[in-house]
């Protein structure tokens, strides 16, 4: 099966060292991040610790710090860094002609 890509907006809609969110099927919220170097990542918008809104965290390098309890999450893998253990699902994406596209199949079934 070929991946189906869902256009979720312009790359420039995501601030450098910041995030924005999009809702997908079932109301699940995906956080789109753009690093200072301009790399774009997509994660489920929930810290693996207490489901804090990662999109409201501080982006530094290729990580985001959760605003609730300061867990540091890798934007590339979704893994908690340091002594913390847990993982937030990552969503495959691509950027084409300045548009951010997420893999629709990866968002199916995220919400109960």
Automatic annotation (TrEMBL):
The protein's name in its UniProt record: Rieske domain-containing protein
Keyword Oxidoreductase: yes
Record keyword Transcription present: no
Sections of the chain in a coiled coil: none
CDD domains: Rieske_NirD_small_Bacillus (cd03530)
Recorded GO MF terms: 2 iron, 2 sulfur cluster binding; metal ion binding; nitrite reductase [NAD(P)H] activity
PROSITE patterns to which the protein is assigned, alphabetical: RIESKE
Domain Rieske: 6-102
GO BP of this protein: nitrate assimilation
Source species, domain of life: Bacteria
Keywords assigned by UniProt, alphabetized: 2Fe-2S, Iron, Iron-sulfur, Metal-binding, Nitrate assimilation, Oxidoreductase
